[in-house]
Design a protein that fits this description.
The chain has helices spanning about 20-30, 35-50, 105-145, 165-170, 175-180, 190-200, 250-305, 310-335, 355; strands at about 55-60, 75-80, 90-95, 150-155, 160-165, 210-220, 225-235, 240-250, 340-345, 350. It is an alpha+beta fold. The strands form three sheets. A five-stranded antiparallel beta sheet has the order 5-4-8-7-6. Strand 9 and strand 10 (about 350) form a beta hairpin.
Amino acid sequence: MEAQPTPPTDRPPSAAVVGDPARLIAFARELLGSASREEVLEGVARRAPALLEGSQVSIEALAPQAGSSPPAGALGTLLPVPTQIGPSLALRIVTHGGSPLDPAQVAWAAAIADAVALALDAIERLVQERSELSQTRDFLQRVIESSVDGIVSADLRGHILVYNQAAARIFGYDRDEVLGRMNVESLYPPGVARDVMKRIRSQEQGGRGRLTDYCVDMLTNRGERIPVSLSASLVLDGRRPVGTVGIFTDVRDKLALEAGLTRAQRELQSHEKQAAIAELAGAAAHELNQPLTAVMGYAEYLKRTVSGDVAQERAIDVILGETERMANIVRKVGRITRYETKPYVGGAKIVDIEASSAVTDE
């Protein structure tokens, strides 16, 4: 005669539970230590019969049928596994003799179902957490690879664990050459890596465990020194440092741009200075030409009126000669188009009229 199934909701009070609680706890612990849903179900099939009087009971796990009752003609007792997440399951408990479970056995089987539910929920949470961690890891990896700055992370022994594409562009090493093979000290000139680590651990640069915007030279795979701006920090596990991470910004283009800007500013200042000197020289030459012309005219007049007086004629010739010399200088001043200097008394510098003139006298 077939055993009539017992409705899963008719659970007697816990006082009716029979069996050894220590064995149930050991069973639950074994299930919680399982690595997969299949391993949980295998553990149920292997251990649960012994918890329900051994050879008198066999147990199978199955998805619950549509509705709340087992199919017509099914033997045994169908107990739902009360999982909170993941797929719904049920345990069908069938005695070898075909007789239904007594109330105490049903209560004990319900405790087994609860243990199975806890184990399956734990497996499902683990699967979800692994999936979330995998997605987070993949996202962080994409962020690291998308960074325009070089990112290098190493353990406390200096073994490089993270090395992105921007770092490969800066240092010239391929990732296969670096990961698991190279020490981070190889990226620095001799002794610089230890100095950087001291600065990271000090309070002077962004706080203990941090280093911000520190200018330092690094080494490429060809041994070339390149200037970078480094921001670095300790990687902590709780409060315990387990490694370091550095973000390297190649500042060669920035320095070249700044140098070009400085040169442009100097050239602009030089052009402005030359323009000012040319304007001043032109104004000075114009203003000096008039009195010089007058001096030369009166000197010529005096030379004609003192004819026969040798001493006065000699003096007038000197005046005419020096005036002509001054006129030549004024003409050169009027032709100044650039700014050139020459040493003068006491280490000073004065405008070199000859060098600054556009053309020289024949």
